[in-house]
Amino acid sequence: MLQKKTVDDLQVTGKRVLVRCDFNVPLQNGVITDDNRITAALPTIEKLRKDGAKIILCSHMGKPKGEPNPELSLAPVAKRLSELLNIEVVFAKDDNVVGEHAKKAVAEMQNGDVVLLENTRFRKEETKNEDTFSKELASLADLYVNDAFGSSHRAHCSTVGVTRFVEQSAVGYLMEKEITFLGNAVNHPVRPFAAILGGSKVSDKINVINHLLEKVDTLIIGGGMAYTFAVAQGGHVGDSLLEADKVAYAKEMIAKAKEKGVAFLLPVDTVIAKEFKNDTEYKTVPTGEIPDGWMGLDIGEKTRALFADAIQDAKTVVWNGPMGVFEFENFAKGTKAVAEAMAALDATTIIGGGDSAAAVNQLGYGDQMTHISTGGGASLEFLEGKELPGVMAVDDK
Ligand code: AMP
Which of 354, 375, 376, 390 is catalytic? Predict the structure, then answer.
């Protein structure tokens, strides 16, 4: 059970409610190319509208480094939100975020109206969690709701500082859903519990591996990070990704798995390529026998079957990180096989955000998973067992 207040615990009618969302969506020439993060925020916004709140939305986008940058304006998000909500979402286009436009728009709000503020990272105080900007944000509102799971691992003004200057704070439905799914999976899993980790670097996932070894029955490692483990087992990996300074750590983790009785699976075969591109010569070899001049870009056929088999009886599976360079079609087969195997399970299947979420959606398995997290970094920190500052800052029930 979540110990934090949620939107259901607030009396919002006629109140100004500042809602921190994660509208950090990909843009190409001012056009939003994936609006998943916007649609994910709708349940909270709609609930607040139904209850007659005055809703002031805020978010960051990209890394403007504390300065206004027209290319990272949230104006396209206001437009998309207007379409999705079927109302006019007023965009307060202040370069200083809480400026004349924002103040006027908020003063003119009726119950159920929605205003969107400009990119919070246009202000240099935002990422430093400085009180000046936190107070300005809070001055627009009576209540605060954090629904930005993807930003909740950062202690910024709009995720943490602002909570100190409003009457009450709560988490939104998206945040509640993320915490419930990820939290239950990791802390109260229905067993057998398997985790699958991939992606490029061991160093990004050191704490995740270490923490998950305390929790899982099976840990599967693929992707670029598997080669460091292959070297730890005495293998040769040619020109594959390798973090030589993490080989000792990989050895430690292999020993820890043994000690804990965790089934620890690494790729047994690898699809190797001459060059890092789709159209290049490729073939499959045993993982520890990659010749120089070749690099591993995907798990091989035997490994795909091995991994699928290893999760066959699992009742909870958490996956973070692709099995290969899925952006290249020729090397997407391993990632696809894992997505396919997970989709077929009668189990709780959870996809950590970032690349694995993109891969699952891109491969068309999105609606066959129990939960796809909207937060990459945040879900990783959750899997490390860390408490997220943006959640901690919210009022307890
Ligand atoms: P991460 O951000 O650490 O989750 O890593 C995701 C990235 O890892 C994706 O862009 C993949 O293309 C990349 N990746 C996965 N497997 C490999 C590999 N064998 N070699 C190089 N990059 C890989």
Answer: 354
Ligand 1 centroid distance, CA of 83 (Å): 35
Whether 135 is catalytic is no
Say if ligand 1 is within 6 A of residue 79 CB. no
pLDDT tens profile 266-310: 999 999 999 999 999 999 999 999 999 999 999 999 999 999 999
Catalytic residue list contains 201? yes
| Residue 5: active-site member | no
> Active-site residue 354, yes or no?
yes
41 vs 10: CA distance, rounded Å? 18
Residue nearest (by alpha carbon) to ligand 1 atom 12: 325
In this predicted structure, what is the pLDDT of residue 1?
A: 65
Nearest CA to ligand 1 atom 17: 224
| Closest atom of ligand 1 relative to the 222 alpha carbon | 16
Taking the centre of ligand 1 as the mean of its atom positions, its distance from the CA of residue 196, in whole angstroms, is 14
pLDDT in tens, 91-120: 999 999 999 999 999 999 999 999 999 999
